[in-house]
Amino acid sequence: MVRDITHFIGGTPTPGTSERWGDVFDPSTGSVQARVPLASADEVRAAIANAEAAQPGWAATNPQKRARVFMRFLELIRDEMDDLATLLSQEHGKTLDDARGDIQRGVEVIEFCIGAPHLLKGEYSTGVGTGIDVYSLRQPLGVVAGITPFNFPAMIPLWQMGPALASGNAFILKPSERDPSVGVRIAELFLEAGLPAGVLNVVHGDKEAVDTLLTDPRVRAIGFVGSTPIAEYIYSTANAHGKRAQCFGGAKNHLVVMPDADLDQAADALIGAGYGSAGERCMAISVAVPVGEETADALTAKLVERIAKLKVGPSLEPGMDYGPLVNRAAVDRVTGYIEAGIDAGAELVVDGRGFTVPGHESGFYLGPTLFDRVTTDMSIYLEEIFGPVLVVARAKDYEEALRMASEHEYGNGVGIFTRDGDAARDFVERVNVGMVGVNVPIPVPIAYYTFGGWKRSGFGDLNQHGADAFRFYTKTKTVTSRWPSGIREGASFVIPTMH
């Protein structure tokens, strides 16, 4: 039976009224399992109104009490981890273990946000002039919103809403319409944890909902994760309407493999980072860059051995390495890239097209695909494929490998595998990429550091989670205070200085 998903507005599950719907599939079977309402502008405005009404009371709640709501939320989400992971897996297609990881990485940011009372402290300087003190306050922006992608339906909403709520803002989540149920359930758990109704609202929708959030003056800031063209659109539109924007786009993450690297370790890293979650990760390693022909030949042989052993199947079936893609359009898109790679002259070493799972022939599956001898002018090198496709782009030496990663238009994540500390240190210093891993395949920082790419992978001055998130979701007020001592000095027409 196909169920109807609701919005979550003012602390209440709210049926859609726009009469526009999107299908939510079970990727493992290809069948429609739910309908999601696509909000009208009026429905989005209702969520904004609820948030605006609830925010002052939440902002007036002291940070310690807000942190206690987060502590209770952590208890609730941990108790519901298995059910939430199942819900996530059924709509997204990632395996249960991967779904738990999705949730856990979001939970770690919520844990960090319990320290909000410390992170929100201002500064104080006494006696900067005769009888004059200066201090600063960090205050919430008001109503803020997050537009999140399908590939991490728990982690990225938690990355955005955690610091926003801990800072005293009200938050409106517009999750992906492809797998929207997890966002609603997270909002319900926050309400149960003690978050006042209306402080966290969830509205589903398409461009109409997004544009309403971007143009409504009551929304003071927008966070976004998705493709680069949409990130650019949201960033520029938000700025044109006087909003802060924190927008993260596409990626083409390289992994440089030096001749001295442990090739078994490197191959295992590439298999997990390239094919995990069917490659539907912005931090997926999609380009292997072995240095030297001998390294490339040996690495490719090890990759082929491991690919042959990968288990691909229904997301809820134990023992699967990865499951289906999110929908049929994703399969068709990735298949198109495979065909483009063949046409461009890349060597197709392993072909994942036509992959089927017995009993699930209508599921959205693609087998692991491997290209070798890919050149930097090919679309499969230049563009984000977002599927289980790994390409090997050989470099003749270290400098060429460094240049490949640095000159690509995306600058999200990069890694190097080597035993040479000098090479690793030089790579970290010189590579033009925002997040770097040394013998680490997926360089996602821990919760108390910030996450964000460079170049066309990120738009905005501040990154996600860590201290940057609290800076993004607050504004600084600086106070200069003087209490007269009773001595009258008369009017002064000179700009004040401290001397």
UniProtKB/TrEMBL annotation:
Root EC class: oxidoreductase
EC numbers, comma separated: 1.2.1.27
GO molecular function: oxidoreductase activity
Region (Disordered): 1-22
Keywords annotated in UniProt: NAD, Oxidoreductase
Pfam family, one: Aldedh
InterPro entries: Ald_DH/histidinol_DH, Ald_DH_C, Ald_DH_CS_CYS, Ald_DH_N, Aldehyde_DH_dom, MeMal-semiAld_DH
Domain Aldehyde dehydrogenase: 18-479
Gene3D superfamilies: Aldehyde Dehydrogenase, Chain A, domain 1 (3.40.605.10), Aldehyde Dehydrogenase, Chain A, domain 2 (3.40.309.10)
Domain of life the protein comes from: Bacteria
Protein name as catalogued: methylmalonate-semialdehyde dehydrogenase (CoA acylating)
The species this protein was found in: Microbacterium capsulatum
